[in-house]
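README: folding subset

This subset contains proteins for which both the sequence and a predicted structure token string are available. Records are stored as plain text. Below is the entry for UDP-N-acetylmuramoyl-L-alanyl-D-glutamate--2,6-diaminopimelate ligase (484 residues), shown exactly as it appears on disk.
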Amino acid sequence: MKLGELADILPHDGVLSDDMTFSGVQSDSRHVTTGDIFFALPGVKTDGARFAEDAAARGAAAVVAEPGSIGGALAIPVIESSDPRRALALCAARFHPGQPETMVAVTGTSGKTSVASFARQIWEQAGLSAASIGTTGVVAPNRDEYGELTTPDPIALHKLLKELAEDGVTHGAMEASSHGLSQRRVDGVRLAAAGFTNLGRDHMDYHPTVEHYHQSKMRLFDTLLPAGAPAVVFADDEWSEATMNAVKAAGRELRTVGRKGAFLTLKRVEHERHRQRAEVEHRGRIYEIGLPLAGDFQIANALVAAGLAIATGLAADQALAALEQLKGASGRLELVGTTAEGAQVYVDYAHKPDALKNVLLAVRPFTTGRVVVVFGCGGDRDRGKRAIMGSIAAELADIAIVTDDNPRSEEPATIRRAILQAAPNAREIGDRREAIRSAISMLKAGDTLIVAGKGHEHGQEIAGRKHHFSDHEEVRKALGEQTA
Ligand SMILES: CC(=O)N[C@H]1[C@@H](OP(=O)(O)OP(=O)(O)OC[C@H]2O[C@@H](n3ccc(=O)[nH]c3=O)[C@H](O)[C@@H]2O)O[C@H](CO)[C@@H](O)[C@@H]1O[C@H](C)C(=O)N[C@@H](C)C(=O)N[C@H](CCC(=O)O)C(=O)O
Ligand SMILES: Nc1ncnc2c1ncn2[C@@H]1O[C@H](COP(=O)(O)OP(=O)(O)OP(=O)(O)O)[C@@H](O)[C@H]1O
Ligand SMILES: N[C@H](CCC[C@H](N)C(=O)O)C(=O)O
Ligand SMILES: [Mg+2]
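--- output ---
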């Protein structure tokens, strides 16, 4: 690709020739091959500008960097950009052209994975070729691959979107994490609609204040969503109003869903054990929906997903009828087994305060006995959430067992101590396998156990090393031992 074809993204005032040719885009010098443009990104751990020379030595044709960030003489031209991350995303989209025609993105503290998965399922049921991209990976026809990031980096993302489009995928739903949004990973995606679920405490190790965190999410609506495109906003959250205001101020089409929603209005919900019945109004018509999932929050997620499908052109009848067949995303309040006496054991990905609170509240209506929770907190992540999660468990569970999540490089006992400080009556069993086994052995008829924090994960990272570990497998094993 010639520089002239990228001139709108990389203005260079005619200093360089428009005929300069590039073979690819790269943001990690270690992966540069001859002819690439190297984007020197200021990062969290280091500054890409320090690797410009390395990139040049590996054959980069030019470097894109913030003004003044490259010190000294470099053998290759430097193209200045005030926002090299955005420039990278836009160039990646151009180097790997082609995206599913209808792309939607969802943001929020909780529910993104579920909404992306539900939107894909709604489209699939309508006979469309659809994909979802997020924490649990990429799911598309003939494809189910696990990825490292919730929102892939722009180079990987655009290679993926191109492949999906070439495979005939016309509809795609992706998660826009706050890291992904603030790092411009989604800037090159052509969005038909965007969704918002909720906002709670998260990533306070990355964002200085909750307002900053909200702001970083609003980029999805005020910068990435084209003017006039629909924004589907869950209306019943504490941050819904601020989000609606941001959407309106940016001149996007507001579509609200939920009890206070106008586009899809939740009129009534009845909880049954594994399912719930809801009455939803859309354009003056009432729809009766049987959602085959437990948990109030799944209704919210289902409404955001249906809202996105309808707002991008699917008939409401089809979208709402599809909710009857939804399958939960792996490890999201997933019923993994039942003890001989009939106590239910769920695996759930709640690893932040609001999610833990919601999940414990969600199972209470159908728990006739005790609510038992096994959970921990990840190391090298927001320390402030530990005590908050401890007090939520102390308040909302009858029995709490504090165990290890992914301690990463931290001392596991220190993490547990921070949680236990706010949950003095909780039991402490560091070994997660042992904690699950012990919790299952104490269950009686009518009890519900939630194994929280790791959801779909297949590994546990201890002292920087990843070991195979699955909450699903451990629950099944412990249930098996019990009946053996
Ligand atoms: C904190 C964070 O978000 N980091 C992400 C970020 O890295 P960074 O740019 O800050 O990296 P850095 O290490 O400081 O390096 C700066 C630059 O120098 C370059 N470099 C570095 C070394 C070298 O030899 N040569 C070289 O060119 C790097 O490639 C980089 O471009 O940009 C990278 C490329 O997009 C990401 O892979 C990386 O994700 C790391 C691995 C990560 O763990 N991110 C997590 C926190 C994350 O993003 N999570 C969210 C979801 C969270 C949630 O909702 O729960 C997600 O979307 O997954
Ligand atoms: N709408 C919601 N409101 C509150 N809590 C929710 C909601 N949806 C899901 N949860 C809780 O959050 C957990 C994670 O859900 P999900 O994976 O769908 O969210 P996410 O936004 O993708 O999270 P992450 O950023 O960790 O990937 C669930 O296991 C459940 O405990
Ligand atoms: N994307 C999240 C996942 C956290 C999952 C939880 N099990 C933990 O390790 O804290 C993160 O990396 O912060
Ligand atoms: Mg997710």
